[in-house]
Design goal:
Elements: E1 13-15, E2 19-25, E3 31-37, E4 42-44, E5 49-51, E6 60-68, E7 73-81, E8 87-93, E9 98-101, E10 104-107, H1 112-122, E11 132-134, E12 144-146
Antiparallel strand pairs: 1-2, 2-3, 4-5, 6-7, 7-8, 9-10, 11-12
Length: 156
Amino acid sequence: MPFHYSAEEGSIRIEDNHILKARLKDINGNYQDAEIDLNNHIGNENGHFSWDATGFGGSAENVHFSIEGDGSVPVLRAGLQDVEGNYQERDLNLAERIENNNGTFYYSTIPRPYIYLVSAANVDSRLSSSNRISLKRGILRGDSIHVPAFHNLSST
Protein backbone atom coordinates (compact mmCIF):
# COMPACT_ATOMS: atom_id res chain seq x y z
CA MET A 1 0.00 0.00 0.00
CA PRO A 2 1.32 3.49 -0.73
CA PHE A 3 2.66 4.81 2.55
CA HIS A 4 0.86 8.14 2.57
CA TYR A 5 -2.63 6.59 2.70
CA SER A 6 -1.88 4.92 6.03
CA ALA A 7 0.22 7.64 7.65
CA GLU A 8 -1.02 9.58 10.64
CA GLU A 9 -2.20 12.98 9.43
CA GLY A 10 0.57 15.56 9.55
CA SER A 11 3.28 13.05 10.49
CA ILE A 12 5.13 12.75 7.17
CA ARG A 13 8.31 14.83 6.99
CA ILE A 14 11.86 15.00 5.63
CA GLU A 15 14.77 15.38 8.06
CA ASP A 16 18.43 16.08 7.24
CA ASN A 17 17.50 16.48 3.55
CA HIS A 18 17.19 12.72 3.00
CA ILE A 19 15.41 10.89 5.85
CA LEU A 20 11.69 10.30 5.28
CA LYS A 21 9.84 9.90 8.58
CA ALA A 22 6.20 9.23 9.43
CA ARG A 23 3.87 7.38 11.75
CA LEU A 24 2.49 4.47 9.71
CA LYS A 25 -0.34 2.09 10.54
CA ASP A 26 0.49 -1.55 11.13
CA ILE A 27 -1.90 -4.46 10.46
CA ASN A 28 -3.52 -3.97 13.87
CA GLY A 29 -4.33 -0.32 13.12
CA ASN A 30 -1.69 1.05 15.49
CA TYR A 31 0.67 3.81 14.39
CA GLN A 32 4.38 3.01 14.38
CA ASP A 33 7.31 5.43 14.06
CA ALA A 34 8.96 4.71 10.71
CA GLU A 35 11.86 6.12 8.75
CA ILE A 36 13.73 5.37 5.55
CA ASP A 37 16.96 6.90 4.27
CA LEU A 38 16.11 8.05 0.75
CA ASN A 39 19.84 8.40 0.00
CA ASN A 40 19.93 4.59 -0.19
CA HIS A 41 17.37 4.50 -3.03
CA ILE A 42 17.40 7.84 -4.88
CA GLY A 43 20.28 9.48 -6.70
CA ASN A 44 20.94 12.65 -8.66
CA GLU A 45 21.81 12.19 -12.32
CA ASN A 46 22.79 15.57 -13.74
CA GLY A 47 20.10 17.49 -11.89
CA HIS A 48 17.37 14.83 -12.09
CA PHE A 49 16.06 12.40 -9.47
CA SER A 50 16.95 8.79 -10.25
CA TRP A 51 15.42 5.69 -8.64
CA ASP A 52 17.67 2.70 -7.85
CA ALA A 53 20.60 5.05 -7.30
CA THR A 54 22.12 6.61 -4.19
CA GLY A 55 23.14 9.84 -2.53
CA PHE A 56 20.85 12.53 -3.95
CA GLY A 57 20.98 14.45 -0.64
CA GLY A 58 24.66 15.27 -1.10
CA SER A 59 23.90 17.46 -4.12
CA ALA A 60 20.45 18.78 -3.17
CA GLU A 61 19.14 21.97 -1.60
CA ASN A 62 15.73 23.08 -0.33
CA VAL A 63 14.57 19.47 0.08
CA HIS A 64 10.96 19.27 1.20
CA PHE A 65 7.91 17.01 1.16
CA SER A 66 4.26 17.74 0.50
CA ILE A 67 1.01 16.01 -0.41
CA GLU A 68 -0.22 17.60 -3.64
CA GLY A 69 -3.16 17.66 -6.01
CA ASP A 70 -6.55 16.00 -6.13
CA GLY A 71 -4.89 12.58 -6.12
CA SER A 72 -3.05 13.29 -2.86
CA VAL A 73 0.35 12.62 -4.40
CA PRO A 74 3.32 12.41 -1.98
CA VAL A 75 5.91 14.64 -3.63
CA LEU A 76 9.59 15.08 -2.79
CA ARG A 77 10.90 18.41 -4.12
CA ALA A 78 14.46 19.67 -4.22
CA GLY A 79 16.97 21.72 -6.13
CA LEU A 80 19.38 19.15 -7.63
CA GLN A 81 22.83 20.16 -8.78
CA ASP A 82 23.69 19.40 -12.40
CA VAL A 83 27.17 18.81 -13.85
CA GLU A 84 27.64 22.55 -14.44
CA GLY A 85 26.97 23.31 -10.77
CA ASN A 86 23.52 24.82 -11.32
CA TYR A 87 20.56 23.75 -9.20
CA GLN A 88 17.49 22.47 -11.04
CA GLU A 89 14.11 22.37 -9.27
CA ARG A 90 12.81 18.80 -9.52
CA ASP A 91 10.07 16.67 -7.99
CA LEU A 92 9.50 12.97 -7.47
CA ASN A 93 6.34 10.99 -6.67
CA LEU A 94 7.44 8.88 -3.70
CA ALA A 95 4.41 6.58 -4.06
CA GLU A 96 6.04 5.10 -7.17
CA ARG A 97 8.38 3.06 -4.96
CA ILE A 98 7.86 3.77 -1.24
CA GLU A 99 5.24 1.68 0.56
CA ASN A 100 3.98 0.85 4.04
CA ASN A 101 4.68 -2.73 5.08
CA ASN A 102 3.03 -3.32 8.47
CA GLY A 103 4.03 0.04 9.91
CA THR A 104 7.48 0.28 8.34
CA PHE A 105 8.67 1.90 5.14
CA TYR A 106 9.44 -0.50 2.30
CA TYR A 107 11.30 0.37 -0.91
CA SER A 108 10.07 -1.52 -3.95
CA THR A 109 12.51 -2.04 -6.81
CA ILE A 110 9.56 -2.67 -9.13
CA PRO A 111 7.73 0.46 -10.32
CA ARG A 112 4.17 0.62 -8.97
CA PRO A 113 2.30 0.07 -12.31
CA TYR A 114 3.96 -3.35 -12.66
CA ILE A 115 3.09 -4.29 -9.10
CA TYR A 116 -0.56 -3.59 -9.88
CA LEU A 117 -0.37 -5.65 -13.07
CA VAL A 118 0.97 -8.69 -11.26
CA SER A 119 -1.48 -8.20 -8.39
CA ALA A 120 -4.37 -8.09 -10.84
CA ALA A 121 -3.12 -11.30 -12.42
CA ASN A 122 -3.07 -12.99 -9.03
CA VAL A 123 -6.81 -12.61 -8.63
CA ASP A 124 -7.70 -13.28 -12.26
CA SER A 125 -9.52 -16.62 -12.33
CA ARG A 126 -8.52 -17.06 -15.97
CA LEU A 127 -4.86 -17.74 -15.17
CA SER A 128 -3.64 -20.77 -17.02
CA SER A 129 -2.48 -23.83 -15.16
CA SER A 130 1.11 -22.75 -15.79
CA ASN A 131 0.60 -19.64 -13.63
CA ARG A 132 2.33 -17.45 -16.21
CA ILE A 133 1.19 -14.15 -17.66
CA SER A 134 2.54 -12.32 -20.67
CA LEU A 135 3.01 -8.58 -20.47
CA LYS A 136 1.58 -6.63 -23.38
CA ARG A 137 2.54 -3.08 -22.34
CA GLY A 138 5.38 -1.12 -20.82
CA ILE A 139 9.11 -1.67 -20.62
CA LEU A 140 8.69 -5.37 -19.84
CA ARG A 141 6.50 -5.94 -22.93
CA GLY A 142 6.84 -9.45 -24.28
CA ASP A 143 8.25 -10.84 -21.05
CA SER A 144 6.52 -13.61 -19.20
CA ILE A 145 6.17 -13.54 -15.43
CA HIS A 146 5.61 -16.51 -13.16
CA VAL A 147 2.81 -15.89 -10.69
CA PRO A 148 3.02 -17.98 -7.51
CA ALA A 149 0.05 -20.14 -6.58
CA PHE A 150 -2.80 -18.04 -5.27
CA HIS A 151 -5.59 -19.16 -3.00
CA ASN A 152 -8.94 -17.46 -3.36
CA LEU A 153 -9.30 -15.53 -0.12
CA SER A 154 -12.82 -14.34 -0.92
CA SER A 155 -14.42 -17.78 -0.66
CA THR A 156 -15.48 -19.05 2.74
